[in-house]
Design brief:
Number of strands: 8
Largest sheet: 2 strands, parallel
Radius of gyration: 30 Å
Shape: globular
Strand order of the largest sheet: 1-2
Helix content: 55-70%
Structural class: mainly alpha
Number of helices: 29
Strand content: under 5%
Amino acid sequence: MKSRIFYALAAPVIAAVLAIAVSSIALLIAGHSPVETFQTMWQYLDSADSLVNIINRAVPYYIAGVAVAIGFKMGLFNIGADGQYRLAALIAAAAGAAVSLPAPIHVLFVLVVAVAVGGAWAAVAGILKVTRGVNEVVSTIMLNFIATGISAFLLAEYFRDNTATLVAQTKELPRSAWVPSLNRLLEAFGYHLPQGTILEGFLIGAIIVGIGYYVVVWRSRFGFELRTTGIEGHDPEGHRALRHGRRPHRDGAAPDGPAAPQVRRHVPHGHRLHRHRHRPARQEQPGGHRRRRLRVGRPRTRRPGFATHRRPPGDRQDPAGHAALDRGDRLRGGPPLRQRRPSAGGGGPERLPGVVDARGGGGVMTTAVASPPASPTQDFRAWLDQTRWARPLVFALAATAILSISRIIADAPDMTSGSTFAAAIGASAPILLAGLGGLYSERAGIVNIGLEGMMIMGTWFAGWAGYQWGPWAALVWGGIGGMLGGGLHALATVTFGVDHIVSGFAINIIAPGLCRYLSSVLFVGRGDGTITQSPHMKGDIGTFTLPFLSGGSFFGWKTPDPLGWIDDQRWFFVSDVAGLLKGFTTEMAWTTVVALLLIPFTVYLVWHTAFGLRLRSSGERPGAAYSLGVPVYRVRYAAVLISGFVAGLGGAWLAIDVKGYNQDQTAGRGYQGLAALIFGNYRPVGTFGGAGVFAYSQALTQRIGTAPVLALFVVAAIIFALLGLRLCSKGQFLGGIVALAVAALAGWYYSVTDKVNNQLVFITPYVVVLIVLAFASQHLRPPAWDGRPWRKGME
């Protein structure tokens, strides 16, 4: 008990001491006195007005923290508290302003509406987690952006107070819906606050929430089961005893193994634990390991192992990397082991299609099996599986066909023009770079939620280097800045074992503050630099247009533009394909060319080199890889550093595009890159497709007129109709009916709407990602050890 109290108090004290030390170093570098700074901070605390202000600001943070802690206790990361809070506040304020009730009932009504809306929005992520296996971190991040867009749409279209011209807000709540302040309560005890200082009454609600949290989580059966679930799910290796026959029963069965002390410590008062009685292990008979059961007519299957290669999930289309494993190549870079092959001169039976060899004892039996002729559908599927580039090509052509049909129905010729595709490809570059950065880290088993912070570091370093040495130096230094963030993430997760999600979000929080501090030191007073932007960048990065296809120059000669001519004809499908190709070959910035070239480079490095094999093995089976000589720690460090460098290139792209660093420049593109990575099933080409979904919707909002934007609802109707028919044909009638209903809703909205709010377009890619995760979660295969802690000696 004493040790628990000591560690509980030591952690925040050590954190505060480290924070003061780091802050002092930063102040000394900036030329300020840490003593004077902390004295000023203490003087601010030495007043009732300041303390009341701090308490009022801390109340919503505390309640949000308690809400998130409930999920954390059961091993679920509710990153969506921001979206739940935002949507609940808007709808509760609008509902409270629309009714008139007595004071206590009115306050209770607003609270109930807010709780119901927030709970319903959080239930979306819960349903996706339980029914479809969608990772709650990704789904709640997507729901945050969707909630932001929905809130802006509802406020602009339905809930806005038209009397307020300067600020978009709802109607003011009547006084009956206000929570009374605590000033009178303090005055009753003889304490009077300064004039104009109000201690909000919701402090009482925060105290009630805290007490309720303690009782429910620590003093109830539900809380015990909740915490046990979190222990079991958070540390699967250390708590295997909980899963295999020794899980705590509802009557309070006691666990054995490493989890036992931790679980027993959290048993509610009045509950009793008992131990399971396990059967003794059955002893093997003498010589039993030499006995083999022979079955005539059946092939003898070899026991799968790392050397014979049991193919890890998610790598079924990985012939090059697994060929190395099948050949017996050693992961530590040694020479390949020789395998016995049947001699060409008859040293073994001839293996033919449809023939099965069964070896048992001293004989070999060959049985011929007649194979029925393959149907065209089976041939097509085999071609998709066997040809590396077939599936992305088919998806691209199918998407172009759907866009072409939608363009004709909506009468929106700009929807698939070369200029639209060029804008979308350019906008996809930073998202693609963030996704590729995440790919390196995730493939090594390290979840990188800190891509946004690494991109922010990249924008600042690119702005700092760009105004001194030009855009190419900005590109390199942007990658270095992102690498610094990646190094911090690797130090926290690989060396100290910090939770990957917590470390990533810490980087996302630290990066903006650090960049603002650096701007105040290095940008203010230099040219047009301020605390929020860097001085103007020197030079231009330049663009590239392909000659003979898109009208580029060839040694000063203006070449023909056949793709542009076909694009202008607006023929069905043909002009749309020409517009797509023209977008790839017309006035493309060299930074975008670098981003696109990183796709084949990543494919080669991760799937066709020894380093890539070690990297992927560290994310799939780090224990097995370590047993074969792979330095898992060093490989993971290298992967996260590369991840930060590539994400920093994405931030540099943004800085070079506008010729300088600006505060809040990334605008969530790091999260979009993470979503694109999952959308693309952790593969480079698929990640580019996911980035294109985000970028295409952004490009359409920049087009003149609403027809291209409105045509997106036609696209949604077609896609959901096809998806619904597909699900119904596979017998998944519930999902099919839901998809058909969404298709009908999208078609109805298109038919009755003349103008589309841009916020609906803003949330479109996030909705698409959620739909893909919901319906294709069984086909998405992250690395087997992704996000799980690993130490030497673990399996």
